[in-house]
Design a protein that fits this description.
Strand content: 15-25%
Shape: elongated
Distance between the termini: 51 Å
Mean pLDDT: 81
Number of domains: 3
CATH superfamily of the largest domain: Histidine kinase-like ATPase, C-terminal domain
Length: 396
């Protein structure tokens, strides 16, 4: 193979390629508060002059006298700005910029070119084409250069602050996920024992008082289990760890199953279910089940006891399916604007709540994950209805 213009720099290019492969895995040093600037010039007194101009307690000036030396420095340090002389022997500034733009680590490093050559529009264009943010001809006004550098120093400071905030948020998220994992595991186990024991007590109890006490234990354990489930769902939503896994299913059959469960939990309430049209759609069975369960449970809990809860599925449209859950009573106007916000649903009434006010929030988020949504309709004549609209096909 004939030699190329980069053949003389093979050792440095080899190291540069190695870094490119490793950079995607992890960084080799922690982010430092001090901001680093790189000056590359083959003339010593130019470096000294620039270093004096840019000296600051916030800034560390890194110096290189050739392109290969600059590459070695960039392998070890992250810089906020590179000031490159264009006319250098061997690897000139344009070629150095080309190599910098060729790797993820330094692709976004801003570059200012300096040159003592006469003004030449083609060279200026070549500099910007190489990725420069500015191109200055010597002699230049030092105040202008200092001002431009100050802008990039401030940008780097903001970048570091955002990175610190992101790291803090990541730590909080990890702590939250750990807490939720403990909550899900360590609370579910004793709750399961409590519920199983309540079933045994209900079976063995001879007296009405004993049966009533066992029923209250079972009811309270069921409510606590629902609260744990809601908190876990909220944590997964906020952590971005929930994803739709669509399968073909019948929304009517799913609603029938959930309605039967709700009737078993609330035998004191009347619940009607009807469907019209084609009820087939693509969706995540678990998430859709929670939408239906949350809406029916919400209606049973907050609706007027004397008015039956009605669930209606409308599958007449070719592209969309609608599921409406209606109950008696209205929602105060002061709560309507916030009804889907987390922890707000528990403020709707004075009766004991079945949850933490997360059911409607979770239902809406799950519907949106499917490409649909939920809207509220409430008035004194028709009562309150939550209408879910879902697409039949995911990603269509």
């Amino acid at each position: 193979m004939p030699p190329t213009k980069y053949s003389a720099w093979t050792p440095w290019l080899s190291a540069w390629a190695s870094w490119t492969l490793l950079d995607a895995v992890e960084k080799t040093e922690a982010m430092e508060k001090n901001i680093k600037l790189l000056i590359v010039d083959d003339i010593e007194h130019n470096i000294i002059a620039l270093e004096a101009l840019l000296a600051s307690p916030r800034v560390t000036v890194l110096k290189a006298r050739s392109g290969p030396e600059a590459l070695e420095i960039l392998l070890q340090h992250e810089v906020a700005l590179a000031i490159l002389d264009v006319n250098m022997p061997g690897m000139d500034g344009f070629e150095l910029a080309e190599l910098m733009r060729g790797t993820t680590r330094t692709r976004s490093v801003p570059i200012i070119f300096l040159t003592a050559s006469a003004h030449d529009a083609s060279r200026t264009f070549k500099g910007y084409e190489a990725g420069a943010v500015d191109f200055l001809y010597k002699p230049f006004d030092t105040r202008i250069l200092a001002s431009k550098v100050e802008v990039f120093v401030r940008l780097e400071q903001q970048k570091q602050q955002l990175a610190e905030q992101l790291a803090t948020m990541q730590q909080l998220l990890e702590a939250n996920e750990m807490f939720m994992a403990v909550l899900g595991h360590d609370l579910r186990t004793p709750l399961s024992a409590v519920m199983a024991s309540s079933e045994v007590l209900l079976f063995l109890a001879k007296e009405d008082k004993s049966r009533a006490a066992a029923g209250r234990i079972k009811s309270s354990a069921t409510r606590m289990t629902r609260m744990v489930d809601q908190l876990l769902n909220l944590a997964r939503l906020q952590g971005g760890r929930l994803h739709v896994e669509p399968v073909g299913l019948d929304l009517h059959a799913l609603a029938v199953f959930i309605a039967d469960e709700c009737r078993a939990r609330r035998p004191d309430r009347e619940l009607h279910l009807e469907a019209e049209g084609d009820c087939q759609l693509e969706g995540d069975e678990n998430l859709l089940s929670q939408i239906v369960s949350n809406l029916i449970g919400n209606a049973l809990q907050h609706g007027t006891p004397e008015v039956p809860v009605s669930v209606r599925i409308d599958g007449r449209d070719a592209q969309w399916i609608e599921l409406g859950v209606r109950n008696g009573g209205t929602i105060p106007e002061t709560l309507r604007a916030h009804i889907f916000e987390p922890f707000r649903g528990s403020q709707r009434g004075t009766r004991e709540s079945d949850g933490l006010g997360l059911g409607l929030h979770i239902a809406r988020e799950f519907a949106r994950m499917h490409g649909g949504d939920i809207r509220l309709e409430t008035n004194t004549d028709a009562g309150t209805r939550f209408l879910v609209r879902l697409p039949r096909r995911q990603g269509a």
